[in-house]
Amino acid sequence: MATLSREQKIEAQRRMLRIRAFDERASKMVKRGHIPGTVHTSIGQEAQVVGATMALGEKDYMSGNHRSHGHPIGKGSPLGPLMAELQGKSTGVCQGKGGSLHLADFNVGSLGESGIVGSSIPIAMGAALSSQVLGRDTVALAFFGDGAANQGVLYESMNMSGVWNLPVIFLCENNQYALSTPAHTVTSGVIAERAAGFGIPGIRVEDGQDLLAVFDAVSTAVERARRGEGPSLIEVVTYRYNEHSEGLRLGTDYRPADEREAWLKKDPLVLFREHLISVEGFSAEEMDALEAEILAEVDAAVAFSENSPWPDPSVGFKDLYTDSEYAA
User: Fold this and answer.
1) Is 63 exposed, middle or buried (0-12, 13-18, 19+ CB in 10 A)?
2) Domains (range + CATH), the chain
3) Residues 6 or more apart from 131 whose CB is under 8 A from it?
4) Greater confidence, 315 or 128?
5) How far apart are the C-alpha atoms of 301 and 225, rounded to whole Å?
C-alpha cells in the first residue's frame, strides 16, 4: 500500500491550503468584477483533489472539468500564471485564451478542462492510449463529476479502455449535486459499481474528506495501470461548500441546512491540520505559519496577474494548430 511521508503530508496540506485560498480569492474577484464571467470553486473538495493528484507521478497526465482550478494546483502548478489566466492576461497558462473553464498546464500534465459535461474524459483516455502506443511508463486520470457520470462518453471511454487495457483512471468527484440537481434523483445505483459492466475494478471512497483514504485508493489504481493491468473507476464522495458557481443566485433551498452544516464539520483542511499536529508532531504555530505563507503566495499571484499585460489582438488566431514530430 502506498503511503505518504511526513514531508509529503505537509506538502499535501500546503497544496490544499493553496486551493482553498486561491478559490476564495477568485470568488471575491469575480464579485468585484476583476475576473470576467464566473468561476467554479473546489472549496470543500480539497482532500479529494490533492489526494488524487499526489498519487500521480510527475509525468502522468490528467484532464478536468469546469471545476478545475484545484487540479493543476494539486499537481504543483504555480499560482501566478493560473490567476493570470482567470483574468485573461497574456502571462496566463493559456496566454489568456482559456480562462477559468478551459485551464491547461502541460508543465504538470494538465491536458485541459471544459465546461461541456464529460467532454474531457476521452482526452485522458487518448493520453493513456498514446502512452501505451509509445511505450511510455505514464498513466492518465480523468476527473469528472456526478453529473457527468450519466454521460454516454464516459461509458464509451471505459469500454474502449477496458478492451485496449489502457493505463487510465476514471475518477468521479461525487459532490452530490449537478448544479442544483441531487445525484440521488437522477442516478440509479452506485456509480462505482458500474465498473463491473466493463470488467474493470470499481472503488468507492465513502469519506472523500479523508485525504489519506483518497490517496490510497488512487495510488492502488495508478500502480495497477502502470503495471499494465488496465483501467479503474473510482468514485469519491465529497461536498462543495460554495454555490455551483460564483454569482449564481439559486438560493440554498435545494441543499438542506443540516446537510451542509454536517459537511462543514468535516472540513478537510481542519481535519488534516489536526492529523499533522496529533500524529505527525507538527506544532500549531507551524500550521499557522504555513497558512500565512499560503495567503502571501495568493497575494503575490494576484499582484503578478494585475501587473501582467492583456494579450495583443494579433495573437488571437495563434495556437489553433500544432506541428507534430510524428506528422507525415
Assistant:
1) buried
2) 6-241+264-306 (3.40.50.970)
3) 61, 137, 138, 139, 140, 167
4) 128
5) 36
Decide: pTM greater than 0.85: yes
Interval 48-63 mean pLDDT:
98
Q: Is 326 exposed, middle or buried (0-12, 13-18, 19+ CB in 10 A)?
A: exposed
Q: The cell 502506498 sits on which residue?
A: 2
Ramachandran category for residue 33: left, alpha or beta (phi over 0 → left; psi -120 to 50 → alpha): left
Spatial distance between the Cα atoms of 268 and 261, rounded to a whole number of angstroms: 14
Positive or negative, the CA dihedral 202, 148, 162, 102 is: negative
Please check the confidence at residue 327 and state whether its pLDDT lies above 60. Answer: no
* Helix or strand (DSSP H, E) at 315: none
Q: Which amino acid is at 267?
A: D
Give the single-character DSSP code of 75.
T
Torsion sign over Cα 237, 241, 245, 248: positive
Residues ≥6 apart with Cβ < 8 Å to 181: 147, 254
Q: Over 70: is that where the pLDDT of 325 sits?
A: no
> Rounded to whole angstroms, what are the CA distances from 79 to 67, 95, 286?
16, 14, 22
pLDDT band at 328 (very low <50, low <70, confident <90, very high): very low
Q: Which grid coordinates are listed for 95?
A: 496566454
Which residues have a Cβ under 8 Å from the Cβ of 85 and sit 6 or more positions away? 92, 93, 94, 96, 98, 99, 100, 103
User: How confident is the model at residue 249, as a pLDDT?
Assistant: 77
Cell of 214: 483518497
d(Cα 17, Cα 294) in Å, to the nearest integer? 7
- φ/ψ (deg, to 5) at 203: -125, 135
